[in-house]
Amino acid sequence: MDNIKYELIIFWSDSDDSFIVEVPELAGCKADGETYEEAIFNAKIVISEWIETARNMGREIPKPKGKLMYA
Fold it and tell me: DSSP letter at 67?
């Protein structure tokens, strides 16, 4: 679980009163936490669960691309 290579976008959300983590390479994969560290910890769990679910459903698992560039 500590060998996550997907890009994480982490930001504070006032409306949620927590840190939000988005994993853009894995559709719909998001997590949150009261602290920055907790949000990352939760994201690792959600990424693992996302991959496990995709495997069980026979869906393709995207390979990590590293840093994504946005226009």
Answer: S
Q: CA-CA distance, 18 to 68, in Å (whole number)? A: 24
Residues with Cβ within 8 Å of residue 9, at least 6 apart in sequence: 21, 22, 23, 24
Mean pLDDT of 46-56: 97
Helix (H) or strand (E) holding 65: none
Asked if 30 and 21 touch (Cβ cutoff 8 Å), the reply is yes
The reply to whether the predicted model has a pTM over 0.90 is no
DSSP 11-59: EEETTTTEEEEE-TTSTT-EEEESSHHHHHHHHHHHHHHHHHHHHHTT-
